[in-house]
């Protein structure tokens, strides 16, 4: 019951037993460091995994230090008594050969898949061998036995299948290979298995060319694990192809990474890491199924598939791994007991990712554009999320399409090009660049030859509002009720025109009651007759986004109908106001509907709009 509550996955048992075997070999290595009579030849040490499907047994054999009777009783007879931890406490660990096991419960994970476990062991420098047997429930027995070589052999009697669980997988060579590669690929000693493969049978010399080849089963002993992890190799020894091969072998993605980062830190906390910035966005990236996180290793042993705490959400696209000797692991070696070390590593990794992205932006703009096309949206979410807590980290990484440059630009590049008299960073929101270019609201800003940033993603304007300003320059929507471009003379002229047509505008406001908050003369329009502007914090584009959300609370923008008094339509409007109130109401509704369509907002009553158009035509 205890073991099943500690471990999440049954397959973990093989990782635990192999790690124990690796520790047993390490102990001989450490003895050789202080005892000149002991010769440690690494090629003589290994872990062997074998199966017998008829007898339903899985056997692990190692050439490690073995155990005497007292050690068997202490280490296997008492749950959570760790011989490896005791050895570590009593010996100076160096040369990077850190002892993996520290808790003493790993061995008992075998009972998740086995009805009975038999341990036959012969300790170093002893002629005696011992056999420990237990079914995991009613204690254990220890008897003297026979074993030719120093080391330990563990035989697991694998459970029979049940309706809910198949235990046959732990007797299947392909499944065992996969588990070893997943968790123990970088154990420093060879993990061997007898692998049976089909080979073509040698044909006689006079055989017909069209004869179908015959196949025979050939069993060969093979080393399953890689032993030396790529992250512990010298960077100068590795090529881009080596990193790309590792990326593919670990199934981080099916693409080629845009950039890789190899980190080796030996300071307050020691760790190695290889990070990848993918080229393509995963198909489920913006779904609930996507899990962020880096692979987490402790001394080359996989602890977690996805350690989410190592990455901030806005860098969740990063793939890779971290290996550290300094992690405080919990009893199951699956989760972390204390997060101080992990927090330090995560902080360093965040800084490194930001630095590498800035470097990519500066040195290889084409690749950065490629990256941003896939993951720029996530960076913008990072600016907006958590009340803008991370905006300082991300503001120099985000980009938008420029009206003058006709390409994606950074905020720094925009500000650098701003004329001295320009007060604001202007932007326009819309469904596409093409649509924004046709927006009436852009006319005045464009007429001033000011650059406009195009916001085409639903997150853009929310992010910018959270950012508030960049290098002391505030952001200003081209649809804002006050663009900050009018001179005092122009403002007075607009006020005069408004006063002259005060009754006309008041009547339009009355006709459109509840739809617009005000009707005013427009100075931003040059060729178009009408547009909508927004006052307040909620823009028209933000209203569209919020209306699509399940709990939108019917948030509306404060809309202002602006009319171009220099357009010929205004003359018709004035004539109808003076002589035909019914036609005036018709024109007012048509202008409002026209302004809605320009903004991409839905018409409240398409049938009424269609009827109004027909009235104008007849």
Oligomeric assembly:
single chain
| Counted beta strands | 22
The count of helical stretches stands at: 19
Q: Strand pairing plus helix content: what structural class?
A: alpha+beta
Using the CA coordinates, give the radius of gyration: 36 Å
Head-to-tail CA distance between termini: 85 Å
Can you tell me the number of structural domains?
A: 3
Q: Which CATH class of the largest domain?
A: Alpha Beta
What fraction strand?
Answer: 15-25%
Describe the structure.
The chain is of the alpha+beta class and 618 residues long. The chain has 3 domains: 2-200 and 213-223, 2-Layer Sandwich (Heat Shock Protein 90); 230-363, 2-Layer Sandwich (Ribosomal Protein S5, domain 2); 488-535 and 557-618, Up-down Bundle (Four Helix Bundle (Hemerythrin (Met), subunit A)), CATH 1.20.120. 35% of the residues lie in helices and 22% in strands. The protein has 19 helices and 22 strands. An 8-stranded mixed β-sheet has the order 5-4-3-6-2-1-7-8, with helices on one face. The chain has a 6-stranded mixed β-sheet with strand order 15-14-17-16-19-18, sandwiched between helices. Helix 2 (12-34) packs across helix 5 and helix 18 (581-599) crosses helix 19. The longest helix is centred in the middle third of the chain and has 24 residues, at 340-363. Residues 80-85 and 93-104 have low confidence and may be disordered.
């Amino acid at each position: 019951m205890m073991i099943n509550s500690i471990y999440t996955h049954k397959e973990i048992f093989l990782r635990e037993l192999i790690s124990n075997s690796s520790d047993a070999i390490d102990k001989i290595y450490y003895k050789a460091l202080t005892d000149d009579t002991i010769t440690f030849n690494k090629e003589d040490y290994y872990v062997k995994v074998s199966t017998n499907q008829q007898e339903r047994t899985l056997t692990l054999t190692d050439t490690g230090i073995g155990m005497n009777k007292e050690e068997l009783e202490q280490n296997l007879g008492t749950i959570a008594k760790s011989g490896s931890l005791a050895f570590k406490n009593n010996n100076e660990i160096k040369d990077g050969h850190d002892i993996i096991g520290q808790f003493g419960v790993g061995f008992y994970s075998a009972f998740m898949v086995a009805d009975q476990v038999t341990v036959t062991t012969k300790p170093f420098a002893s002629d005696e061998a011992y056999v420990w047997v237990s079914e995991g429930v009613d204690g254990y027995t220890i008897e003297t036995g026979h074993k030719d070589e120093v080391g330990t052999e563990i035989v697991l009697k694998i459970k029979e299948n049940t309706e809910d669980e198949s235990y046959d997988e732990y007797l299947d060579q392909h499944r065992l290979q996969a588990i070893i590669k997943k968790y123990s690929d970088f154990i420093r000693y060879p993990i061997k298995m007898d692998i049976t493969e089909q080979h073509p049978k040698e044909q006689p010399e006079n055989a017909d060319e069209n004869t179908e080849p015959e196949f025979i089963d050939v069993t060969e002993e093979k080393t399953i694990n890689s032993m030396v992890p790529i992250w512990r190799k010298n960077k100068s020894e590795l090529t881009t192809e080596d990193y790309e091969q590792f990326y593919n072998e670990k199934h981080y993605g099916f693409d080629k990474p845009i950039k890789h980062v190899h980190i080796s830190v030996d300071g307050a906390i020691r760790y190695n890491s290889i990070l990848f910035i993918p080229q393509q966005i995963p198909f489920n990236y913006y779904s609930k199924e996507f899990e962020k996180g880096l692979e987490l290793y402790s001394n080359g042993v996989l602890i977690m598939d996805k350690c989410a705490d190592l990455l901030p959400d806005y860098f969740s696209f990063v793939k890779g791994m971290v290996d550290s000797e300094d992690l405080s692991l919990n009893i199951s070696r699956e989760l972390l007991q204390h997060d101080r070390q992990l927090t330090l590593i995560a902080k360093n990794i965040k800084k490194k990712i930001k630095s590498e992205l800035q470097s990519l932006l500066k040195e290889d703009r084409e690749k950065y554009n490629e990256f941003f096309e896939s993951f720029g949206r996530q960076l913008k979410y990072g600016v907006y999320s958590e009340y803008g807590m991370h905006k300082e980290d991300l503001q120099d990484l985000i980009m938008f399409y420029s009206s003058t440059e006709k390409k994606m630009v950074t905020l720094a590049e925009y500000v650098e090009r701003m004329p001295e008299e320009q007060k604001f960073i202007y932007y326009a929101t819309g469904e596409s660049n093409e649509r924004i270019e046709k927006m009436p609201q852009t006319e005045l800003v464009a007429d001033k030859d000011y650059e406009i940033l195009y916001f085409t993603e639903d997150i853009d304007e929310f992010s910018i509002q959270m950012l508030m300003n960049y290098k002391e320059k505030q952001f200003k929507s081209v649809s804002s009720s006050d663009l900050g471009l009018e001179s005092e003379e122009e403002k007075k002229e607009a006020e005069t025109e408004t006063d002259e047509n005060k009754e006309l505008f008041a009547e339009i406001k009355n006709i459109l009651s509840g739809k617009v908050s005000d009707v005013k003369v427009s100075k931003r329009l040059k060729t178009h007759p009408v547009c909508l502007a927004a006052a307040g914090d909620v823009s028209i584009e933000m209203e569209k986004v919020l209306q699509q959300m399940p709990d939108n609370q019917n948030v509306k923008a404060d809309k202002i109908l602006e009319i171009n008094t220099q357009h010929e339509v205004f003359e018709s409007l004035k004539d109808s106001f003076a002589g035909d109130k019914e036609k005036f109401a018709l024109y007012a509704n048509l202008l409002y509907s026209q302004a809605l369509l320009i903004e991409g907002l839905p018409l409240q009553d398409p049938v009424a709009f269609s009827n109004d158009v027909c009235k104008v035509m007849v």
